[in-house]
Amino acid sequence: MAHRTTALALALVLLATQPGCKVNKVRKVDVATVPQPEKETLSGVTTKLGEEVSFDWPGGALKEDVIHAQVKKAPYSIPLSEVQRLWITRQGISTARTIGLSAAIAVGTLVVLAAIVLATKQSCPFVYSWDGTRYVFDAEPYGGAIARGLERDDYSPLDHLRPQDGLYRLLLTNEVDETQYTNFLELWVVDHPRGTRVLPDDDGRLYALTQIQPLAAARDRHGNDLLRWLQATDRRIWEPAATVGSDGELRQEVILTFAKPAGATQAKLIVNAGTGLWGSLMIKRMIELRGREAAAWLASLDTDPAQTEALHSWTAREELYRLGVYVEEPTGWEWRGSFLGAGPLLVKDRVVPLDLSRVRGSQLRLRLRPPLGFWALNSFAISYAADQTVDSQRVSPTLARTTQGQNVLPDLLAKDDRYYAMPNMTDRAELTFPAPPAKPGMDRTVILHSRGWYQLHLAAGGDGDVKTLQAIALGRDAAARYAVDEYGQWQAARQTPGSKSFSTSRQPTPQ
Fold first, then answer.
1. Can you tell me the distance from the alpha carbon of 113 to that of 282, in angstroms, rounded to the nearest whole number?
2. In 305-457, beta strands by DSSP E
3. Given phi > 0 = left and psi -120 to 50 = alpha, else beta, which region is 220?
4. Before 58, cis peptide (omega within 30)?
5. Three-class SS of residue 284?
6. CA distance 482 to 469
7. Distance from first CA to last CA of the chain, Å, rounded?
8. C-alpha torsion sign, points 351, 356, 362, 366
9. Residues sharing a CB contact under 8 Å with residue 317, sequence separation 6 or more, in sequence order
10. Are residues 473 and 290 in contact, defined by beta-carbon separation less than 8 angstroms?
11. Reduced to 3 states, what is the DSSP secondary structure of residue 33?
């Protein structure tokens, strides 16, 4: 599809082929070396037509911009220009002594990355769940909480968590260049009837979902059919490039269509969507426009409610990290809900409750208008079933110990002024929770309730770019324009022979 991003997304799959502790994590790699797939082991691709192709072992190889592989023992080839996402296998082995734990990180966990973010991912700690054999990357909480004044609660279903010896175990790590402050952690354990799904909304309300219906249709503003991209949570991730089309629009438009039962007046929209790869990087880039004043501005959010409220209002208007859901009603498109951007490396399903009391007819049509470069959409579904009572058991950790042996449990038991701080990319802690006995005949969902914030390690100095800052603050879609311009500069740098590509720590350039 012509408007789909050309950035290659990478999946890091760590292979457990040797004894010891296998660590599945995002590695910091120089951006300039990433767009060299001929040096990688290719495990598969997602094509621009939305086809998922897995290669036979030992994977594919790139020769003269064409990928060659075996698929089900038959020869397969595809030009790189037809690939939307490139799935890469890497092996990372470290001993248990190195990370101070006796556990192994999961094999085969796919972490979707892009070349533009592999070395620049900004936001959030990583949470790994013990699945009975090894740790699996399972949550990426409180994204976007870049100051203590923006500290927030997060609710993440843990799909891989399994009890062992009566305990649940989590691994909390810092793997990006920032200081992370975790204030509180607990598990919500929900036993529910089989055939139901339990999911949270952004505010932590839980929903027991039944009679879930898939999308009937999905199209973008150019009329392109997106159903294949948005009907299931899979490797097909719709992420338009941060490039302006011929009409000059700085936003995409997505129309989602569902069949609607007669008389339905409320619904639960199930969303799997998050912050785009470029949008994650733009958090830091826009803050660094403040130059030497950046740190002081972030600190002001801790003590000045007016500043914080102004930021929230701007975010809601621009929809960079919270996207509105508009319902088609007789009066036109009406705002009826929104959802936070999560990730960008791991996005979980969440619920957006919708009021449909004004909708007429047998179809429900929803509109999303994501700014270019800021959003990645994976799947949407809906349930019209009536609300059900959801009972959860709240379980606090009984152990929280760092790799250096420090007991950080008191820092995580309450929402207070105590934090477990992780300033280094090697910081991590293992937590254990008692696992309540399973209830016969019931399914179980476990949700991580966490609270915290993180401090970016800023490289900005000198005078700020006041002109660009004012434009972004006052002009509608000016932030999207800035992201588009930065993306264009990054693309140009990549295509320049001998260039070291785009640097996330370069100083602001007055405009």
1. 16
2. 322-329, 332-340, 350-355, 363-368, 375-383, 393-395, 399-402, 420-422, 428-434, 442-456
3. beta
4. yes
5. helix
6. 10
7. 33
8. negative
9. 476
10. no
11. helix
Tokens standing for 56? 């036979």
Token pair for 95: 């001993």
β-strand 9-13 against 21-22: which pairing, if any? unpaired
Q: E-assigned strands of 174-312?
A: 178-193, 197-200, 206-209, 212-214, 217-220, 254-259, 266-275
Closest to 231 (Cα-Cα) out of 383, 382, 7, 384: 382
d(CA 146, CA 124): 9
- Residue 475: strand, helix, or coil: coil
**The pairing of beta strand 375-383 with beta strand 212-214:** antiparallel
Q: Which residues neighbour 236 within 8 Å (Cβ) at sequence distance 6 or greater?
A: 46, 50, 52, 228, 229, 378
Q: Judging by DSSP bridges, how do beta strands 350-355 and 135-139 pair with one another?
A: unpaired
Q: For residue 508, what is the DSSP state?
A: P
List, in sequence order, every beta strand (DSSP E) within 61-177.
Answer: 61-63, 66-71, 74-79, 83-89, 93-94, 112-114, 126-130, 135-139, 152-157, 167-173
Q: Which two tokens stand for residue 358?
A: 């004004």
Q: What percent of the chain has pLDDT over 90?
A: 59
Give the per-residue pLDDT at 497.
61
Rounded to whole angstroms, the Cα distance separating 359 from 460 reads 49
Helices 305-318 and 294-303: crossing angle in degrees, nearest 10, is 110
Tens digit of each residue's pLDDT (9 = 90 or more) over 197-248? 999 999 999 999 999 999 999 999 989 999 999 999 988 889 878 889 888 8
DSSP string, 391-427: --EEE--SEEEETT--B-GGGTSSSSS--EEE-STT-
Of 263, 255, 268, the C-alpha closest to 362 is 263
Predicted confidence (pLDDT) per residue in 285-338, tens digit:
899 999 999 999 999 999 999 989 999 999 889 999 999 999 999 999 999 999
How does strand 167-173 pair with strand 126-130?
Answer: antiparallel
| Contact call for residues 297 and 150 (beta carbons, < 8 A) | no
Interatomic CA distance for residues 430 and 171, integer angstroms: 5
